[in-house]
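Example 3.2
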Amino acid sequence: MKAMPSPRKILEDAYNTAIFEYEKDRGEQFLNQLPSSLKYWMSIIGEKPDKHRATIAVLATLLTKKVETPAQDIRYHREDLPNGFSGRSYDTKYVTPFIKEKFGTKFAMKESGWLTRSFEKAEPFHLNYGGQISPENLKKAFLHILDEVQQSDGDLAKKLLIALFIYLLRRKHEIDKEIEKLVSAEESISIEKRVMISQIIQALEDHFSIHNASRLPVIAIYSAYQILVEEVERFRGKTLKPLRGHVSPDYYVGLGDIEVVDENGEYFEVVEVKYDKPIDASMIMDVYGKIRKRKVKRYYVLSTAQPYIKIGEEAIVRDLVIRIMTEIGCEIIVNGVISTINYYLRLMQDPSRFLKTYTHNLEEEFKKRSEVTEEHIEDWKKKLNMFFSQTSE
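Structure, written as tokens:
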């Protein structure tokens, strides 16, 4: 009896074929040979796959399972469904780690594509599946692909897995090109070129106002801290923890977006950034709930909103800050993101260094996460060009 291929071998074979087809003609000939309906549905799945990581993970898992076990109805993706299997476990063990390894974290879920509302419903992936997969055309594409695969065999599933990897390769190379452009812009900045703090602040204010910019203020504040921990005496011996990505509450283990620890590993300074949300009493109480049993010297709650404290709650926020300091000894500082960065820039020996640090971090986040996009990159490049032309006159 012929042994079934392992999930890892199925994924490796599909990936190697996708590499071959991509290098030949970007996969055009291979994709054109798919049945017309599947070619159309796959093109929807393959459009900006870094924006639909959960769908990519789930589809890759189900296609891999179909190749491994052709008799399995892959639409029954849970063990509590009739003759079903655990798609989530299969994804967690084989597929998501493979996507991370070959394509990077920008295309992969933290653990599994099933950890979203889109795929959590305990019902099979039939055409009338009620889960909240969005947008609607993505949902239709996903369900129609599974419907056609289930009416076929493992060979079609293998072809579609290759096609999926071709689309991932295309997008990965597009992103790599964007990164090359960003690096060129970064290298054009000379640390010796001085720019005014007011220019940097204006650029950041404009930059933070573009579409889906919630991650940008976090990166900017983190960039400032990278410089401060090197230059400011207060941070001597302190360690800035790595910048983490956005994670669901179930997997959140830290205290804030940015964390500085002391020589004993205890929290010295923590920063939480709110995007376009004024700070209110409930946010301060949330902070209290996180830190009341921890040793934290200072905790910043910063907002990009103007005003940064919710109108009508200024007094209660101030009272809560005082009460928390009295009770547990943690100083909570409530402020605006821009005014905080403005102050941090004044502490730096050379504020123009911030530009290079922020640009580098933007590049790294663009590599890793979908929250930083080409639009953000292009917008910041324009800001850099503006600085370069102004300071070289």
